[in-house]
Automatic annotation (TrEMBL):
NCBIfam families: rpmI_bact. Keywords: Ribonucleoprotein, Ribosomal protein. GO terms for cellular component: cytosolic large ribosomal subunit. One of its GO terms (molecular function) is structural constituent of ribosome. GO terms for biological process: translation. It comes from Candidatus Saganbacteria bacterium CG08_land_8_20_14_0_20_45_16. Belongs to the bacterial ribosomal protein bL35 family. This is Large ribosomal subunit protein bL35. The gene is rpmI. InterPro entries: Ribosomal_bL35 (IPR001706), Ribosomal_bL35-like (IPR021137), Ribosomal_bL35_CS (IPR018265), Ribosomal_bL35_sf (IPR037229).
Length: 65
């Protein structure tokens, strides 16, 4: 059986922790930043866990995890 390949686009966007949680970056931090509050931008810098509805799809794209 051939080796399972990692989707490279997914590997650049997601990170797997030791406990198996999948983390992602927040959205809305690319442009139009001058109208957003400092507090909002500061909170968007943090990583968060992938939603439960998307977990199976993301795990399929990252077979090494």
């Amino acid at each position: 059986m051939p080796k399972a390949k990692t989707r490279r686009a997914a590997a650049k966007r997601f990170r797997i922790t030791k406990n198996g949680k999948i983390l992602r970056w927040q959205t809305k931090m690319r442009h139009l930043l001058e109208c957003k509050a400092k507090k909002k931008k500061r909170s968007l810098r943090k990583v968060c866990a992938v939603a439960r509805a998307d977990l199976a799809r993301v795990r399929h794209m990252l077979p090494g995890g």
